[in-house]
Specification:
Layout (H helix, E strand, L loop, with lengths): L12 E6 L5 E13 L2 E7 L4 E7 L4 E6 L2 E6 L12 E6 L12 E3 L10 E3 L6 H7 L3 H9 L10 E10 L6 E8 L7 H23 L5 E4 L1
Parallel strand pairs: 1-12
Antiparallel strand pairs: 1-2, 2-3, 3-4, 4-5, 5-6, 6-7, 7-10, 8-9, 10-11
Length: 219
């Protein structure tokens, strides 16, 4: 696994789940791609779908489109910053709010594989992305300030608690995730939201610890 950092198409990280028998199974494979100036993305490949996280290189925010719903994670420091963030908050945006995901597309010739995958983007058709790629910081800040959330309460939060040993286990507690799960909501939706937060948390953790190699995360 240590040498896979030098291998083409190596994953940024792999997230696993456990079954009732205690066996681990790969649930999400994550890849990183640069899309445009000040814009990068993580591609999360699940058994049932693929999801993109679009990273804002100028402001602490990342945008996601999932099940026709616009989401924004505030607090993510982006790949251009060298300073890590210890708190992440995911909000549901109003449908008419500008998002980095507007006009984006993901083409995967082979389902479940990053080989040949392309992120389609038309920055000229998206004022937010155009301001970002052209380094128009004042305009970009103005457009972000006009964003409106569906409710002013985060759907998911992550807080870094530092490394704390868990008594009787080989694992450490280094953060807390809290999320709303509506009654009757499918488990897979909750797991997707959790994976999004874990990817951005991993981004921040690598900055604070200097780790660059792909990793496995088991939950």
């Amino acid at each position: 696994m240590m040498f896979s950092v030098f291998k083409k198409n190596a994953p940024f990280m792999v997230i696993c789940t456990y079954d009732d028998a205690g066996q681990s199974h790969e649930y999400c494979r994550v890849h990183f791609k640069n899309v445009a100036n000040n814009l990068s993305c993580y591609i999360l490949m699940f058994p049932h779908t693929s999801v993109m996280i679009l990273n804002n290189g100028l402001r602490p925010a990342a945008d996601i489109m999932y099940c026709d719903t616009k989401l924004r994670v505030v607090g993510s420091s982006g790949d251009n910053s060298t300073f890590a963030s210890g708190e992440l908050k995911m909000y549901v945006l109003q449908p008419n709010t500008l998002s980095l995901t507007d006009g984006s597309s993901l083409v995967q010739p082979t389902p479940g594989s990053i080989k040949g995958a392309k992120v389609g983007f038309n920055t000229s058709a998206n004022d937010l992305c155009q301001a970002l790629s052209e380094l128009k910081k004042h305009l970009h800040t103005k457009l972000l300030s006009e964003a409106r959330t569906l409710v002013n309460i985060p759907l998911v939060t992550y807080t870094d608690t530092g490394d704390k040993k868990i008594s009787g286990l080989k694992h450490s507690l280094n953060g807390t995730v809290r999320m709303f799960q509506p009654p009757g909501d499918e488990l897979q939706h909750t797991l997707v939201m959790l994976c999004v937060i874990l990817v951005l948390r991993e981004q921040e953790m690598r900055k604070s610890k200097g780790g660059k190699r792909p990793s496995y995360v088991e939950h």
